Amino acid sequence: MEDPLEAYRDRFVGADTDLVYFDGNSLGRPLKVTADRLRDFVVEEWGGRLIRGWDERWFDLPLTLGDEIGRVCLGAGPGQVVVADSTTVLLYKLMRAAVAARPGRTEIVIDRDNFPTDRYVADGVARECGLTLRWVEVDRSAGLTAELVADAVSERTALVVASHVAYRSAWLADMPAITRVAHDAGALVLWDECHSAGSVPVRLDEAGVDLAVGCTYKYLNGGPGSPAWVYVAERHLDSMTQPIQGWMGNVDPFLMGPTYTPTAGIRRFISGTPAVVGMLAVADMVALVDEVGIDAVRAKSVGLTEHAIALADEQLAEHGVTVASPRSAEQRGGHVTLHHPDMARVVAALWERDVIPDYRDPGGLRVGLSPLSTSYDEVDRGIAAVRELLA
Asked: Which family does it belong to (predicted)?
């Protein structure tokens, strides 16, 4: 297969080995430049500048990196994205802020196949605030549609919570249409971009999105436990207050005064001390996506997923494997899920062969294809290994 982005694969640690990595949508490979950056940071910035680093760069890093993520990956103008906390904590902050901004409304709309954390946090917020969850039933091989949301929202809806790319099926939701449906009902909408950012072009400003959150260890290759990011549309920044009132979100963090007053702008969504080391790898990957261009990254992603589906049809269908992801590229994110009753055992055996997909119930082998670090040859070898095991 022709691959105009093939040369970029050499920039990733481990890409020159025989290991087949189908889990880039869970944890991306590190960039080689990051190894040098981390070493230099320990010796020069941390070891050399010590606490002076906060005044020189670190204090503003969540905002400067947030702006870069927004510009390169999210279609978000400056001052609306900040890096902080984990996805779970940021989901909680945004949900609480959103329902507080819609007083008198009593429901949160969310689909039953949304990522577990999103569902768990929504359940907790609903119980804390005396609200009701309005569950949307979806097809697990597809996902949330504007029509399903329209049937669920009403004058009671405070917030709609949706994933842009479904974690199980890779269903790519129609963000502008669903956002319009929520707004027509007078509700806010919160988008989970964990399986989008860095792989699928996202246009938060253009779609009129209110709130969004995403992690950085998948397609942004920030490493295990790297911090998440949060987007709050500029029109909401002065009116929304997040519930975890920490010193870094105060109007003057170093005054250490007796009361909390939220600072202006997106910084108010920071609570505690930023994870500076965890942002370094993210900055490297965002710079690479900027160099390549998110549209070129998406084109490679579509090519990889189409190739995986074609191979599954040719080599695995005769063994009872079905494709549990949308076949249309316009409705599919960056991974493909293959279904078979024995996939849990297949995945365990593949790991022993240095072929690394992941498994999602029921019976789903998830082929996660990180566009800049995955080759077409890798896909060939991985699908061949699945065929051999099933045979």
From this structure: Belongs to the kynureninase family. Belongs to the DegT/DnrJ/EryC1 family.
Q: What distance in Å separates the CA atoms of residue 311 and residue 333, rounded to the nearest whole number?
A: 18
Judge whether 367 lies within some domain: yes
User: What domain range includes position 191?
Assistant: 38-289
Who's near 218: CB < 8 A, 6+ residues apart? 24, 25, 26, 27, 28, 194, 195, 197, 198, 199, 370
Residue 1 lies in a domain: no
Task: Answer whether residue 373 is part of any domain.
Answer: yes
Which among 261, 289, 317 is the end of a domain? 289
* Percent of residues, the chain, with pLDDT higher than 70: 100
For residue 193, the domain's CATH number is 3.40.640.10
Instruction: Summarize the confidence of residues 167-188 as an average pLDDT.
Output: 98
Task: Give residue 141's pLDDT.
Answer: 84
Return d(Cα 202, Cα 204) in angstroms, integer. 6
pLDDT beyond 90 at 17? yes
| pLDDT tens-digit readout, 244-303 | 999 999 999 988 889 999 999 999 999 999 999 999 999 999 999 999 999 999 999 999
Please check whether residues 316 and 351 belong to one and the same domain: yes
Taking residue 232's Cβ as centre, other Cβ atoms within 10 Å add up to 27
pTM: 0.97
Domain boundary among 257, 289, 321: 289
Mean pLDDT estimate for the chain = 97
Q: Within 13 Å of residue 43, how many CA atoms lie on the same side as its CB?
A: 6
Query: Alpha helix locations (H) across the chain?
Result: 32-40, 52-56, 61-69, 87-100, 116-129, 146-152, 175-184, 204-207, 276-292, 294-311, 343-352, 376-390
- Which are the catalytic amino acids? 115, 192, 217-218, 366
